[in-house]
Each structure stands twice: as C-alpha cells, then as structure tokens.
Amino acid sequence: MASSSPLGYKIAVLVFIENPAGQQLLLMRAKSPNLGCWTPIGGKLETATGESPFECAARETREETGHDVTPIDLHLFGMIAEKAYEGESHWLLFLFRCTRPIEALPPAMDEGHFAFFDRTEIDTLPLPETDKTALWPIFDEHRHGFVAMRADCDPTNSLKIEIEQLMRV
After folding, report:
1. How many C-beta atoms lie closer than 10 Å to residue 32's C-beta?
2. Pick from 92, 98, 94: which is nearest to 138 by CA?
C-alpha cells in the first residue's frame, strides 16, 4: 500500500558492462532494492558533493568492480524516471553503457556476487520486474542512441512506460 505522505526521490545510475566476449556483467543483489535479483551495477549519486551522473557511474564502476573507467568510457543511452518504485520512492535513473570491456569477473562484495551472461540468457534469470519489462528492452533498442522515459511503477496499477525523447543512431 502506497504511503499517503509524499515519496522521496532517489537519483542513481546503472552501468552496463561487457567482457571482451560480449557477455554482460551482472550482480546478484544481496541487499534491497532488488534483493535476490540479477542487475547491472550502479548506485546513488553523491548529491551533497554535486557529483554528476557520469562521475557517479565511473565511481560506482570502480568501487563495485575495480574496473577503472573515466566518463569518456561511458555512453549515456537512457534516462528513466520511475514513479513509486515498489511503492517506496521515486527514482531518476541514468543508464550508461561502458564502452571499455572488463577483462575478468570481479570478486564478490557485500552488495552481492558477479557473473557474466550472454544477452539471450538474461531473460531467463531472476530479474526485477521493471528490468524484465523495460530496462533490458531499452538496452537492446537504444544502447547506441538515447531515450528518455517515465514509468509509473505504482504497485497498485499495471506498469506504464512513456517515451519522452528518442534519438536513434
């Protein structure tokens, strides 16, 4: 049940990273949100320091995987505003594709453990519902371009996604 008080807004990044064979690096989440699901890496912006989404994506990549990238190694391919995600909060997500492959599987950490998957395997994994219905299709179609979307994730309604801007490459 959604709270009658206003929901807070969280700003975060997700980073899609491949190995040289083209397999996606995913994290089996050991913490909420998305506990027990496979997701791309990511995290919240350090808004108190004025961190940009690109800086956050590079920092999160380094912290979670040890893969040292700079903003030049990152392609912003999507932005999605999720209203009432899991009925808990609103999220503004910046979606990045890392253009520099990661060579080896990173070690496990308190956030979870990693594995590489072929894109065709990902749809058979335990994924968050919005990842299954929206995030991976967005990646498939727009990872070389850009798309801005909004999603109504209120758990009392069916998921509604609207494209607000689209640039194809």
Report:
1. 9
2. 94
Which of 28, 22, 44, 53 has the alpha carbon at shortest distance from 127? 28
pLDDT at 79 over 90: yes
Distance CA 159, CA 133 (A): 9
In a domain, 145, yes or no: yes
Nearest to 14 by CA among 118, 135, 111: 135
Name the one residue in this structure whose structure tokens are 């108190």.
48
Average pLDDT, the chain: 92
Domain assignment present for residue 2? The answer is no
Residue 147's domain comprises: 9-167
Residue 159 inside a domain? The answer is yes
Alpha-carbon distance values, 101 to 55, 145, 153, 155, 169 (Å): 18, 19, 32, 36, 21
Q: By C-alpha distance, which of 95, 102, 110 is closest to 151?
A: 95
Q: Is the pLDDT of residue 120 over 90?
A: yes
Is 3 inside a domain boundary? Answer: no
Please, what's the largest Cα pairwise distance for the chain? 48
Single pTM value for the model: 0.90
Q: Is the peptide bond before 33 cis (omega within 30 degrees of 0)?
A: yes
